[in-house]
Amino acid sequence: xxxxxxxxxxxxxxxxxxxxxxxxxxxxxxxxxxxxxxxxxxxxxxxxxxxxxxxxxxxxxxxxxxxxxxxxxxxxxxxxxxxxxxxxxxxxxxxxxxxxxxxxxxxxxxxxxxxxxxxxxxxxxxxxxxxxxxxxxxxxxxxxxxxxxxxxxxxxx
Length: 157
Hints:
The chain is an alpha/beta fold.
């Protein structure tokens, strides 16, 4: 079974994600990409063979996309992650997930009562705003525990 993901943000870091997903994960397909600058998503989509170039709203409305990969600039990681969660999708966020502790708590509060939502972020080195998550949920927590969504953090402290 293939999991379909959408890339939100086709800037400098996106080629690393697009290339690694295609080379590394046989069960993950990049189904769509979006960017505020349409030419960027068009260029990256064409270069990496992404079948659908669209707006973020269209990406989030696609029922086949299960995970949104948030590669936007750090100042909009939080609002984009909230938008993804509100669309009922899981979100993988480039670091930092949020710029403030309050935003991070807002993300947790938003998804804690929703089914099948997880937030994954990479490498927490020098990423203090989300360190507080370690206080709430152990690093070894599963994606879901008895149907309750939890945060899974991948990377180092």
